[in-house]
Specification:
heterodimer; A: 282 residues; MetI-like fold; B: 379 residues; alpha/beta; D-Maltodextrin-Binding Protein, domain 2; 2 domains; 12 strands
Chain lengths: 282, 379
């Protein structure tokens, strides 16, 4: 009797989730089938026009662009973040704390402010260009800002900590005696790494991949700010349709397809890598 | 039993703190809004700023004027000047979007607010819905000060309802040191010498519009074939575009990212103040106009004070203070001589055209052009 009522305490949480998470999603799905009437309005009559419209190559390429950017961001983050997390976990406790601290500090500042920092660094008369010109390496400023590489830099920078922290926790709690055993049994350092360390830290890497891939499908303000609005991601398209373009049903349809696409990719990813236990997630 | 009570208490405490958090956050933001625009009645302004219905309850008091517009549209001394002269207290309530304003005004059945300042196209809708009251010209003795260039427009052809409060005219600004050609119109932005050197604002209708103007067409073209042609022409502009951005676009001219830029009026004013060496161009193909105007809702609780306020705004000194503060083109002829010359449109300026609502098909086509153009810029 006493235990039975405990669930009452969780009711507010469930209610909150239902009302503020599931509710908007259902609303979005419903709106995506509604008819646009111009202005900010729409009409509740069933239509598939919003989805048909997406077949236009102009809109399809936004999906392609989003996917490519998310993939390259994730791959770059794996290449930089894994070694970083790995070596971070092998420092002394003091060193670990320091590195962890350094990774966390930027989080105390709004990501938008940090992006403006990149603007100052990369712009034509910015820090980087002045420095390179002072060194005599270039005569005219490099045009980095408002290009694809600038967007990529911003994306990798913004999501880097998620990858590092995921890998770090995984390497940190690994049983090193297993690596020693492998080495004792005659495995080369590389082989020991590939067969033991990598295998054991794979769940961490996997959650790192998900933690970077999923947000990068949706993050569009980085591309807008550092790319000068020239890299059109699905996110910015949705924003355009929601505000100025004033076509809410189309925006809802785009958002729905984006969510479905991301979910499918995640499912595929788990299927292919055969991981069911993602560290710290699910 | 004890445990259960304790846990319920904890839940309740958590809920309360959550709600308290909401409350204090709301008050905080409203206070900052009030601080920037109006100081004398922060409490009232906060109520108005955070919830229109909250303001409604307080508007019935005599001696009050509820002013409803965007945040930060008036210098403090202008509002205080009116309060001191008339003893009427101004309650500054603000909205983010014109559409929000129209919604609230409709919900209040044309009441609650005394003076509203908003954009041209939404005023047209408000008039059509019967939410706007006629001005009292017997109070508005300064009505003749208005520059006729900004009168008789589509939203108020007979000048019965509105007093213009500034005009926005997007213009081209360029750095003659970095540009080899002389820019005199939109078409010059297509010049190959401007490769990767042009910054533009991010309104899809405006950018489609200037492309149409450069083709000798109207900004409000409805013909889908012509819009498609404009789309093709926009793609040819793509190699010249350095960035597309609505906020602080003018900075691109100052930090060396762009040599030429297509800017909103307030941005033009700001960039010219920073670097007077830059050149401003009133494009020869025609101008895009956007007028903000004040009107009195049909059931305004204090219509007399509202007309007095609009009349006050038309005094040359007051106009000067206002326009120099908001940085929009001066619409008060009587202030032309004293206001910052950068805010006065030249006498030989080409005709202006307004962006108006178009059919849904045309709007879709404009949207499509815009997405294709942006993507082409990134290639």
């Amino acid at each position: 009797m006493k235990r039975d009522r405990w669930w009452l305490c969780i009711v507010p949480l469930y209610a909150f989730t239902l009302v503020f998470v599931l509710g908007p999603v259902l609303y979005m799905v419903a709106v995506s089938f509604a008819r646009n009437t111009g202005g900010y309005g729409f009409q509740w009559s069933f239509t598939l026009d919003n989805f048909r419209k997406m077949r236009d190559p102009v809109y399809l390429q936004c999906f392609q662009q989003s996917l490519l950017l998310a993939l390259s961001t994730t791959v770059l983050n794996v290449l930089i973040g894994y070694p970083f997390g790995y070596f971070m976990a092998r420092r002394s406790p003091r060193g670990k704390r320091l590195l962890l601290f350094l990774i966390m500090i930027p989080f105390w500042t709004s990501s938008l402010i940090r992006l403006y920092g990149w603007l100052i660094l990369l712009q034509a008369r910015g820090v980087l260009n002045r420095f390179l010109m002072w060194l005599g390496m270039i005569d005219t400023p490099l045009k980095i800002l408002y290009t694809y590489p600038a967007v990529l830099i911003g994306m990798v920078y913004g999501l880097f900590p998620f990858m590092v922290l995921a890998v770090y926790t995984s390497v940190e709690k690994m049983d090193w005696t297993l690596v020693e055993a492998a080495r004792d049994l005659g495995a080369s350092p590389l082989r020991a790494f590939l067969t033991v360390t990598l295998k054991l830290t794979l769940p961490g890497l996997m959650s790192g991949v998900i933690l970077t891939f999923v947000p990068s499908m949706g993050l569009f303000f980085i591309a807008d700010i550092l790319g000068g609005n020239k890299i059109v991601l699905v996110g910015s398209l949705i924003q355009d349709q929601m505000t100025r373009g004033s076509n809410q049903p189309f925006a809802a349809a785009l958002a729905l397809i984006l969510s479905v696409m991301t979910t499918l990719l995640l499912w595929l990813y788990r299927k292919v890598t055969g991981t069911s236990d993602l560290e710290g997630m699910f | 039993m004890k445990n259960r009570i304790l846990s319920l208490l904890l839940c309740a405490a958590a809920l309360v703190s959550l709600l308290a958090g909401c409350g204090s956050a709301g008050a905080g933001s409203a206070n900052s809004a009030a601080g920037s625009a109006e100081a004398s009645s922060a409490g009232n302004a906060a109520a108005g700023g955070s919830a229109g219905s909250g303001a409604a309850a307080e508007t019935q008091k005599p001696g009050q004027l509820v002013l409803y517009t965007w945040e930060d549209m008036f210098p403090r001394e202008v509002l205080e000047g009116f309060e001191q002269r008339t003893g009427t207290k101004i309650v500054y309530s603000n909205f983010d979007y014109d559409e929000t304003m129209l919604e609230k005004l409709a919900a209040a059945n044309g009441g609650d607010y005394d003076v509203i300042i908003a954009d041209d196209y939404i005023i047209e809708q408000a008039v059509a819905e019967g939410l706007v009251g006629a001005l009292d010209k017997s109070i508005l003795t300064n009505f003749g000060n208005i520059n006729p260039l900004y009168q008789g427009q589509f939203y108020d052809p007979e000048d019965l309802y509105t007093v213009p409060y500034g005009c926005g005219i997007p213009l081209i600004v360029y750095d003659p040191e970095q540009v080899d050609i002389e820019i005199s119109g939109y078409s010059d932005l297509w010049d190959p010498t401007l490769r990767d050197a042009v910054a533009i604002t991010a309104n899809y209708r405006v950018i489609n519009g200037i492309t149409l103007l450069s083709m000798g067409k109207s900004m409000n073209e409805e013909d889908l074939d012509v819009i498609a042609q404009a789309g093709e022409r926009l793609l040819e502009l793509a190699p010249n575009i350095r960035l597309i951005q609505d906020d602080n676009t003018q900075n691109a001219l100052l930090n060396g990212e762009a040599a030429a830029a297509f800017l909103y009026t307030s941005q033009v004013t700001q960039v010219m103040a920073e670097n007077p060496e830059l050149k401003v161009v009133y494009p020869r193909e025609g101008l895009g106009f956007g007028i903000m105007a004040g009107f009195v809702p049909v059931n305004a609780p204090n219509a007399k004070a509202a007309n007095e306020f609009l009349n006050y705004l038309l005094e040359p000194e007051v106009s000067k203070a206002c326009f120099e503060y908001i940085g929009y083109v001066n619409t008060n002829k009587a202030a032309d001589g004293i206001v910052d010359p950068a805010l006065v449109a030249p006498a030989d300026a080409p005709e202006g055209e307004f962006i108006m609502n178009v059919s849904e098909e045309a709007n879709d086509a404009y949207n499509r052009n815009w997405t294709a153009f942006k993507a082409a810029c990134g290639q």
